[in-house]
Amino acid sequence: MRYVILIVLAIVMAPACQHIGSLFEDAGPDTDGDSDSYCTQGEYSGDLEITEQSDVAALAGHTSISGTLTISCYSCTDLNELICLTSVGESLQIWNNNSLTDLDGLNGITSVGWNLQINKNHALTNVNGLSGITSVGATLEILGNYNLNNLDGLGGITSVDGDLTIWETSLTNLDGLGGITSVGGYLNVGTNDFPDCAVCELLDQLTSGPFSINVGVNLNDSCTPVPASCP
Fold this sequence. Notes:
There is one protein chain. The protein contains two helices and 15 strands. By secondary structure, it is of the alpha/beta class. The chain has a single domain (40-215), classed as Leucine-rich repeat, LRR (right-handed beta-alpha superhelix) (Alpha-Beta Horseshoe), CATH 3.80.10. It has an eight-stranded parallel beta sheet with strand order 2-4-6-8-10-12-14-15, with no helix packed on it. It is globular.
């Protein structure tokens, strides 16, 4: 009789366990492409500054933020709870993050209304998490990211309405900016590990702008062939 009871309990409990399991599958960041059950929070109103890992949860499930999103967190290592974000109404500021090695979790963002600023993130090696962005409404600034070895994640950006600044990096080329055809403001490039003529290559691809050019101290190596914009 004992075995019969155990078998009946197993049959009864199985559907309940499956239901509980489905609840766990629906919880947390969407990693399988099915965002219906997770990205349900709509727009986050106002600005948000992330200064510690627990702050990331404030945007979990939100598809946009109306104001400025600042990520300035000494210990943050994971931005995956931001996977639902598709737009930032004002600026996206990624500053002074000492532990972030990538920007995975920001992959869904396609537009930044104002500034995109990636400054002084000492562990950052790539910006692939920004590959969905196609336009920047004001400034694109990449400054003081000494371990950043490529800009391939910015290949989707076609226009920068304000200034474009690449300063104090270890970048050896600007290949990741190959999609940009328009710069509305100043072009500021200096103290990098690519030759000055790489700036000429960038100028060759532009059909509009920049308003003015400021080239600082980069490498003196030449490019082959020499870009048309270089003397």
